[in-house]
Design a protein that fits this description.
- The protein is an alpha/beta fold and 501 residues long.
- The chain folds into three domains: 3-238, P-loop containing nucleotide triphosphate hydrolases (Rossmann fold); 247-330 and 416-501, P-loop containing nucleotide triphosphate hydrolases (Rossmann fold), CATH 3.40.50.300; 342-415, no CATH class.
- Helix content is 33%, strand content 26%.
- The protein contains 17 helices and 22 strands.
- The protein has helices at residues 43-50, 73-78, 96-100, 115-129, 144-157, 174-189, 201-207, 230-238, 293-300, 323-328, 338-342, 349-354, 370-383, 400-413, 430-445, 457-463, 485-492, and strands at residues 3-14, 17-28, 32-36, 58-63, 66-68, 81-84, 162-166, 193-197, 210-215, 218-224, 257-266, 270-278, 282-287, 308-313, 316-318, 331-334, 418-422, 449-453, 466-471, 474-479, 494-495, 498-499.
- The strands form five sheets. It has a six-stranded mixed sheet, sandwiched between helices. Strands 16-17-18-13-19-20 form a six-stranded mixed sheet, sandwiched between helices.
- A hairpin with a 2-residue loop joins strand 1 (3-14) and strand 2 (17-28).
- The radius of gyration is 24 Å and the shape is globular.
- The structure holds adenosine-5'-triphosphate and magnesium ion.
C-alpha cells in the first residue's frame, strides 16, 4: 500500500528549542493515525510543517510518493492537506458561513458576495456532518465546542484527502465527541487519511488505527492501536511508568465553610442554586456542556453577577459585581478559555506567572523585584515541568499544553482562599495532569477551598471530595462518596426532576 503522506527525517529548530529531531511519519489512505506525546514534544510543529505553516530545516515530505515543497498553507491545501489547528483561529467578527468561505466567497455577476449561496453551501457541509447550525450566527457568540465544529466544516470544505486534527476534542463533551467520531469514520470510509492528536488516552482505542509517539522532538515509534496496551503507549510517551494514586478523602466535619451560595439565580442560565464549600475541600462540578457550570463560576467571580440570591464568603454576605472585587475577596478563577482571559500571549513566561502576584514582589514604592519574580517563575517552571527555553520566552511561542500550565502556575501562585478551576487540564498531557492533581490536592491540604469544573468524568471522580452535578442551569445533586460515572450521568441528564430517556 502506498502512503499518501511520508515525512522523512524532518528537522526544525527555533531559537533555544530543537523542536523536531529527524522525525519520520507516514499516513495511509483511510486510516486514523494518532500522533501522541507530552506537551512540547513537537506534535503541532510537525503538523505545521506538513500544512505549510513552517518550512523545515531538513528532511523530505512526499505526497503520493512524490517529493513536494510546502512553502505556504495554500500550497498544502492545493495538495489536499487540511488542518484544524489546536488554537482555534476563526474571525470573531464574521459569521459562521463567512468564516468557512473566507477569501473564496461565491460572487454575483456584479462582484457582490452571493450571501444566499454562501449560507446554503455552509448548511450543506453541516448536513454532511450531521449537525445543525445557523450559518449567519456570529462566531463571537459561539461556544468553543461550536467554534470547533465550524473549523471542521471549513477544513472539509476544501475536499481534503488528508485531514489533520490537532486536539479536536479538547473542548467537546461526550455527545459531541461521539458526533465527531461519526464524522471521522465517514471520512475514513471515503479514503481520507486522518492525523489525530489528543491527550485523551481512551480516544486512541476508540478511533485510531495506528499510533506514532514523539518525545522531546524525537520519533519514538509507531504501533498498531489495537494490539498495544495504553500503558505501553504512555510509557513510550513519558519514558517511564506512571502510577495512579487515588485520593484519600479528608475528614472535613470540623472545617470552616469558605463559600456559600444561596438560591443564586440569573435569567435562564442559573436556577436557584445552593451549595457550600469548606476550607480544604475539593468540590467537583460535573454536567454536560451548557449545564451552567461556567455561568455559575462566572457569577461567583463577579464576571456576570447574579440577579437574585446570596453569596457568602467566610460566613459574610458579599456583593461581588466585578472580577477585581472577587480577587479582593480572595476568589480566583481560572477560565476555560485561556486565550481570551488567561494569558498575555505577547509577554514572557515570567510576567505571566507573576502577573497575579506583583504586589507581593514589590517594595514600598511599587518597584518590582525582578530577581524574586525570576526565582518564583523558575520554581513553577520546574514544578509543572513547563517546556520553555527560559522564563523570558514569549508565552505565545510555547506549545498549547505548556501555555495552559503557565495559567495554572499563575493562579497557584496568587494567594486566593477560594479557587475555581474551569477545565484545568484541557490539552495537558498525562504526566503533567498527574502533577496538577497533586498540586490541587496539596493546596486543599493547606486549607484552600477548591472548585473544579471538568467535562472529563474520570478526572472529576479522581480529584473531588464531593461532586456537584448540574443540568440546564439547576443543581440536580451533590454526591459525596460512592459516586460513579453512571450516577453522575443520571443527574446530568435529569430534566425537571425526571431522568431524560
Ligand atoms: N514559533 C515558535 N517559536 C519558538 N518555539 C516554538 C515555536 N513553536 C513551537 N515552539 C517550541 O517547540 C516545542 C514543540 O512545540 P509543539 O507546539 O510542537 O508541541 P506539542 O507536542 O504540540 O505540545 P502540546 O501537547 O502542548 O500541544 C515546544 O518547546 C515549543 O515551545
Ligand atoms: Mg500542540
Amino acid at each position: 500500500m502506498t502512503d499518501i503522506i511520508r515525512m522523512e527525517a524532518i528537522e526544525k529548530a527555533f531559537p533555544g528549542v530543537h523542536a523536531l529531531k529527524s522525525v519520520n511519519f507516514d499516513l495511509r489512505r483511510g486510516e486514523v493515525h494518532a500522533l501522541m506525546g507530552e506537551n512540547g514534544a513537537g506534535k503541532s510543529t510537525l503538523m505545521k510543517v506538513l500544512s505549510g505553516v513552517y518550512t523545515p530545516d531538513g528532511g523530505r515530505v512526499l505526497v503520493d510518493g512524490q517529493e513536494v515543497h510546502l512553502p505556504t498553507p495554500k500550497a498544502a491545501q492545493d495538495l489536499g492537506i487540511g488542518i484544524i489547528h489546536q488554537e482555534l483561529a476563526l474571525m470573531r467578527d464574521l459569521n459562521v458561513a463567512q468564516n468557512i468561505w473566507i477569501g473564496r466567497e461565491p460572487r454575483l455577476p456584479f462582484g457582490r458576495i452571493d450571501e444566499a449561496k454562501l449560507n446554503a453551501d455552509a448548511v450543506a457541509i453541516f448536513a454532511g456532518m450531521n449537525i445543525r447550525m445557523d450559518p449567519r450566527t456570529p462566531v463571537a457568540g459561539l461556544t468553543i465546542a461550536r467554534q470547533q465544529m465550524v473549523e471542521i466544516a471549513k477544513a472539509l470544505s476544501y475536499h481534503s484527502r488528508v485531514l489533520i486534527m490537532d486536539e479536536p476534542t479538547a473542548a467537546l463533551n461526550d455527545a459531541e465527541i461521539a458526533e465527531l467520531f461519526t464524522i471521522i469514520r465517514r471520512l475514513k470510509a471515503e479514503g481520507v487519511g486522518i492525523i489525530y492528536i489528543s491527550h485523551k488516552m481512551d480516544e486512541i482505542k476508540r478511533i485510531a488505527d495506528r499510533v506514532t509517539v514523539m518525545r522531546d522532538g524525537a520519533y519514538v515509534g509507531t504501533v498498531a492501536a489495537e494490539d498495544t496496551p495504553i500503558s505501553r503507549i504512555i510509557s513510550m510517551m513519558v519514558g517511564r511508568e506512571l502510577k495512579d494514586e487515588v485520593a484519600a478523602i479528608p475528614d472535613l466535619s470540623n472545617a470552616e465553610t469558605a463559600l456559600e451560595v444561596r438560591n443564586a439565580s440569573r435569567g435562564r442560565e442559573l436556577k436557584n442554586i445552593s451549595f457550600s464549600l469548606k476550607k480544604g475541600e475539593i468540590l467537583g462540578f460535573a454536567g454536560l456542556m451548557g449545564a451552567g457550570r461556567t455561568e455559575l463560576a462566572r457569577a461567583i467571580f463577579g464576571a456576570e453577577p447574579i440577579d437574585s440570591g446570596e453569596i457568602l464568603v467566610h460566613g459574610k454576605p458579599v456583593r461581588i459585581t466585578s472580577p477585581a472585587q472577587a480577587v479582593r475577596a480572595g476568589i480566583g478563577y481560572l477560565s476555560e478559555d485561556r486565550k481570551h482571559f488567561g494569558l498575555a500571549l505577547g509577554m514572557d513566561v515570567r510576567a505571566n506567572i507573576a502577573m497575579a502576584s506583583l504586589g507581593r514582589h514589590s517594595d514600598a514604592i511599587g518597584r518590582v523585584d525582578e530577581k524574586a519574580l525570576g526565582r518564583v517563575a523558575k520554581d513553577y517552571i520546574g514544578k509543572l515541568n513547563i517546556r520553555t527555553p527560559g522564563d523570558r520566552q514569549e508565552v505565545g511561542l510555547l506549545s498549547g499544553g505548556n501555555q495552559q500550565k503557565v495559567v495554572i502556575a499563575k493562579w497557584l501562585l496568587r494567594d486566593c482562599d477560594i479557587l475555581i478551576f474551569d477545565e484545568p487540564t484541557r490539552g495537558i498531557d498525562v504526566g503533567a495532569k498527574a502533577e496538577i492533581y497533586r498540586l490541587l490536592k496539596e493546596l486543599a491540604a493547606q486549607g484552600k477551598a477548591i472548585i473544579v469544573i471538568s467535562s472529563e468524568l474520570p478526572e472529576v471522580l479522581r480529584l473531588s471530595h464531593r461532586i456537584a452535578v448540574m443540568c440546564e442551569g439547576r443543581l440536580t445533586g451533590i454526591l459525596s462518596g460512592g459516586a460513579d460515572q453512571e450516577k453522575i450521568m443520571e443527574l446530568a441528564t435529569e430534566r425537571n426532576g425526571k431522568t431524560a430517556a
